[in-house]
Amino acid sequence: MEFNNRYGNSPFYDNQQPRRRGLGGFGIAVIVLLTILVAAIVLAVSLRGEYRNDMGVSIEPERTAAPEPTKKPAAAPATPIPGTGIMPPLDGVAPDLSDIATPGFWDNPIPSIFDAVSPSVVGVINYTTQTFGKREILDIYGSGSGFVISSEGYILTNAHVVADAEKITVLLDSGEEVEAALIGADNETDVAVLRVDRRDLVPLAVGNSEDMRVGEFVIAIGNPLDSERLANTTTFGVISAKAREITIDGHTNTYLQTDAAINFGNSGGPLLNMKGEVIGMNSAKSITAGFDEYGNPVSAEGIGFALPINAVCTIMERLITEGSIERPAVGITVYTLTEAVAAEMELPLSSGIYVASVVTDGPASRAGVCAGDIILSANGRTITEQAELIAVINECSVGDSIRLEIFRNGDTFSCDILLADKNQMDFNTIDPLPAD
Fold first, then answer.
1. Catalytic: which of 186, 190, 226, 431?
2. pTM summary value
3. Which residues on adjacent β-strands are paired with residue 204?
4. pLDDT value at position 425?
5. Active-site residue flag, 377
6. 118 carries an active-site annotation
7. Which whole-number Å values give the CA distances from 165 to 117, 131, 190, in the listed order?
8. What dihedral do alpha carbons 142, 146, 151, 152 form, nearest 10°?
9. For the chain, which has fewer Cβ within 10 Å, the N-terminal or C-terminal residue?
10. Residues in Cβ contact with 296 at an 8 Å cutoff, skipping those fewer than 6 apart
11. pLDDT digit string (tens) for 37-82?
């Protein structure tokens, strides 16, 4: 939000009359102008003070870090061991919209939807050990949003909201903060499942994200910036697009796109249809549309992304019943070769998949793959795009073997790689580049 106290000056024109003693027309005009300017300055200062006092928010940008909760977290709940649970019933009930007499274009169900579903939207607080001078204390690292999905105390949020947390708490609509157990998290799809030892929570009704159409109205509810001051902020928009394949932090997923305002802290909150059913989990937004001629970022507005609830529930079930999701991988980072890239790197080939790095002691490393290799085929299928290699790997399971045809220093050879679980690989630890 911007607040501008700049006022324009009104033009005054000389009427070309002969000068007279005393104030004259020009003198009076000057006095009137000065009076108006002084009044405008006084009014602006007064309005600025009222804005700060009435709204309780500084005009300057606020820090997005979550404030320290005013209440101490409750004792740790007695929750099941992750991976040993039974999928709970998704028993949410859609809100009663009978107060809208005649459904039609001009009827507004949003107030009724908000009243019914907002108690099911929670704040999710991530605690980690932080160092202050010589002291180490467990303090708030960050926060996001979440929503109740089952009356048995299960809560959905984004995996990045609870990443590296040493303790997780949930801030309920009542203001109570209770500790939550992490049942499971999948970084690939950015889905995490929490559970609190409460049976009085009201779950959201689950809709069908496949039924959504571009242009349909949607509501986003969450806690932008932090979990207390702006809790249960509601924004309104439409489904801008379906099935957007977006890569975030190296993970490619299919999202619903919406222009409903989503900000930092909204991550993990629900996206709802006009029946009050959750059809997506808000996860990300685009904040830049590119750069201008001077290298300055050009801001993007109204481009938010939500994971479809159908996909989220599939991941949720596996996390609850299995504890984690195995994902086959060879342990390399790659990118697609193009003629421009090949020319810049002075490569002899302009088609294939370039190996940028190899995870130390990963499957590819043990098979002898090196950074700088070019993958030509996988399991006998010619590979020219990164997505094609990913598709071949995803057709396999952990423990399967995959054969790659590789080009290196003018020679072509094949190697068999035993696929391992991607979640067990450290992509920050890579083999050194081979000597020339």
1. 190
2. 0.68
3. none
4. 87
5. no
6. no
7. 27, 15, 15
8. -40
9. C
10. none
11. 766 665 555 555 444 433 333 333 333 334 444 555 555 555 667 7
